[in-house]
Amino acid sequence: MNKILLFFLILAPFAAEARPVSYPGGWTVMMQNSGDMHSIHTHYSPSAKYSIGLRNEYDRRDDFQNHSIQLNNLVKRWNNPDSQANFYLKSGIGYAIKKGNSDQSPSAFTGIAADWENRRYFVSYENRYVHANDITDDFHQSGRIGFAPYIGDFGDLHTWLMLQIDHHPEANNDDHLTVTPLLRLFYDTHLLETGINDNNDVLFNYIKRF
């Protein structure tokens, strides 16, 4: 039992990465930027089962802002001696505004996220469906695979090399499917990701836990 506890203390920096639910009483700020979207999501976790917060985003594809209250639920977690897996439901309601205020509409979105990892390998999948009348009706899904080139100790700088694939069924041929090699760096309560996809769009994400 002591060995298992020690393992998860060492694994904790990885478990703290981009997941939508933190420890009870924890705050998280997530800033994400890609060729499709820029967003800032701040949430609070009253328990280890769910978080609630504000999400502000600008969708470059459909040229609108979306301001939402987002609820994240941890539906199921699998803790094994040498790995962990999670399944989440992420939903929100808010208000969408087209650039120039030409169209405005209530908005809603929902989606799932799942991941599995050990100290060497990482796999994840997520999707999201967003609807706002006369502004957007969009589905997007993405998956990642990654590995750690070295195994760091607790408190070290941790490095992951990852490959992300994004799928937009309704996009044009150039943006229908994109591939992004990326670098993830995690230290203490800070996480940074950066990469460039095959359309030369820059991905830059920063996450801070409090």
What is this structure, in a nutshell?
Helix content is 7%, strand content 65%. With 210 residues, it is mostly beta strands.
Report on the structure:
The chain has 210 residues and is mostly beta strands. Helices cover 7% and strands 65% of the residues. A twelve-stranded antiparallel barrel has the order 1-2-3-4-5-6-7-8-9-10-11-12. The protein is globular.
- Order of secondary-structure elements: HEEEEEEEEEEEE
Supply the number of helical segments.
1
Strand arrangement, major sheet:
1-2-3-4-5-6-7-8-9-10-11-12
The helix content, as a percent range, equals under 10%
Biggest beta sheet attributes: 12 strands, antiparallel, barrel
Total number of strands: 12
Mean pLDDT: 88
Using only C-alpha atoms, the radius of gyration works out to 17 Å
Structural class: mainly beta
- Overall shape: it is globular
Can you tag this structure with a few keywords?
mainly beta, twelve-stranded antiparallel β-barrel, 65% strand, disordered N terminus
What is the topological layout?
Blueprint: H1 2-15, E1 26-33, E2 37-47, E3 50-59, E4 64-80, E5 83-98, E6 104-117, E7 121-132, E8 136-147, E9 158-167, E10 177-187, E11 190-196, E12 202-209
Antiparallel strand pairs: 1-2, 1-12, 2-3, 3-4, 4-5, 5-6, 6-7, 7-8, 8-9, 9-10, 10-11, 11-12
